[in-house]
Specification:
A seven-stranded mixed sheet has the order 7-6-12-13-14-11-15, sandwiched between helices. The mean pLDDT is 96. Strand 1, helix 2 and strand 2 form a beta-alpha-beta unit. By secondary structure, the chain is an alpha/beta fold. The radius of gyration is 22 Å and the shape is globular.
Length: 480
């Protein structure tokens, strides 16, 4: 028996992803003794980086662009810069190229985005749509990024909700008259991994656009791993302990603790806890729905991507999907078990702004598309076709590539069931009632057992709010 196994803790956290680390920090800040157990040899969960292609090239394995890292009330409260984290802001958060050789740009301000040169006749409509949301963000943040409860600012939330609960297709067509504004909004809404005809896909587009104007869409210098490393460093400075390479398969393997918080999805929670959870709750967890997967490609390049629209080089994030009709067709096909020939591709070119990612003159590129749940189909050619469509000559600059299918994503991170990087479908049925419809979704019926992963509100993203709220629940239950 190891030293850690003999010791009694106030709380044990299973999983050292951003939510597990957030839960650990929240408990440690309250003066509790906390141990974090991570099954992999490195911490980070969905916030890891590695040399996936060639020596000297650092790639983000999962998350890459982090507006929520700056917008989350919890993350803003952490002194992460004192622990080595540095944010880098591209001059523009997002570029969305079109086949005519131009690109629509999401700029840092509403005014700069809503110009006639960028959005044509829809510039005024964009400013009218986004201006109030940007002004209200700091009143809305904890209500949007938290569990369902009585809002702190009901009027501001109502203004947001009237539009957010619509489908992205409906809101875009109601608000905008021309292709450009509809296309860039569709790309942001497609982060929902839902058909754009379904509510509340509009909410994803509205939140991402708002964050671009409030905090930007930054990258972490040196890779997304640095976010987890900074969180872990801060946690350890509070007296916390982390053990890696310690896969937990049953409750019997854990040290004695008053509370155990699991940064896992319902499927793993069922496997680990067994009969410790009541039958009715286990049935609810078994009904939890996972969504589409992703197919991801990382490239080492001999130079920057040769975009037809040169303004694409101003943004770390580029959405490749053309018009709203094409993006909607791509996302709709996935839900019918199909692989669209021209998939919507989310691409990040971090090394344009972070020289630590690649040798001098070389570059890294990160991209993925959505695929049906669990699909093992190789989408490399289709993804590269979408990049070359907007950047002829792209393939000539490829030095090496690394791919991960949906099953390989799950093998890499067990929380990505079927390649689902959001920890479960985020539709109206399962947005706030994840993993089960309970007043406090982080608390299980078994005393001292909590779930703190992205399978709880507010869902996917590197924001730490799931872990923070779960830890606050445990503190209220057990450590008053």
């Amino acid at each position: 028996m190891s030293k850690n196994e003999r010791r009694t803790y106030d709380a044990v956290i299973v999983g050292a992803g951003p939510n597990g680390l957030a839960a650990a920090i929240t408990l440690a800040r309250a003066g509790r003794s906390v141990l974090v157990l991570e099954g992999k040899e490195t911490i980070g969960g969905g916030s890891r980086s590695a040399a996936l292609t060639l020596p000297g090239f650092t790639h983000d394995v999962c998350s890459a662009i982090h507006p929520l890292g700056l917008a989350s009330p919890f993350m803003r409260s952490l002194p992460l810069q004192e622990h080595g984290l540095e944010w880098i802001h591209p001059s523009a958060p997002l570029a969305h190229p079109l086949d005519d050789g131009t690109a629509i740009m999401l700029e840092r301000t509403v005014a700069a985005t809503g110009t006639s040169a960028n959005l044509g006749r829809d510039g005024k409509s964009y400013r009218k749509l986004m201006g109030p949301l940007v002004r209200d963000w700091h009143r809305l943040a904890e209500d949007i990024l938290g569990p369902l409860r009585f809002p702190r600012h009901p009027i501001a939330l109502a203004r947001f909700g009237v539009k957010a609960l619509l489908s992205a297709s409906l809101l875009a067509k109601m608000t905008f008259k021309e292709e450009r504004a509809r296309a860039i909004f569709a790309g942001m809404a497609a982060h929902s991994m839902l058909p754009l005809e379904r509510p509340p896909t509009a909410s994803f587009g509205l939140v991402l656009a708002t964050l671009a104007h409030v905090v930007g869409w930054p990258v972490a210098r040196g890779g997304s791993q640095q976010i987890a490393n900074a969180m872990a460093s801060y946690f350890c400075s509070l007296g916390g302990e982390i053990v890696t390479g310690r896969l937990v398969e049953s409750l019997d393997e854990l040290p004695t603790a008053q509370a155990v918080l699991f940064d896992v999805t319902p499927r793993q929670l069922l496997q680990i806890t067994g009969d410790h959870l009541p039958p009715g709750y286990r049935r609810q967890l078994r009904r939890y729905r996972y969504g589409p997967g992703v197919f991801k490609v990382d490239w080492a390049l001999d130079g920057p991507i040769p975009w037809k629209a040169e303004e694409c080089a101003r943004a770390a994030t580029v959405h490749l999907g053309g018009t709203i009709e094409e993006i909607a067709a791509s996302e709709r096909a996935i839900w019918h078990g199909q692989h669209y020939e021209r998939p919507f591709v989310l691409l990040a070119q971090q090394s344009l702004f972070d020289a630590t990612r690649a040798p001098e003159g070389k570059h890294t590129v990160w991209a993925y598309c959505h695929v049906p749940h669990g699909s093992a189909l190789d989408m490399t050619e289709r993804i590269e076709g979408q990049v070359a469509r907007f950047a002829p000559g792209f393939r000539d600059r490829v030095l090496a590539r690394h791919t991960m299918s949906a099953p390989e994503m799950q093998q890499y991170n067990p929380n990505y069931i079927g390649g689902d990087i959001n920890g479960g479908i985020q539709d109206l049925r399962q947005l706030f009632t994840r993993p089960t419809p309970r007043l406090t979704p982080y608390r299980t019926p078994a005393r001292g057992i909590y779930i703190c992963s992205s399978s709880t509100p507010p869902g996917g993203g590197v924001h730490g709010m799931c872990g923070h709220f779960a830890a606050r629940t445990a503190l209220g239950d057990l450590f008053r």
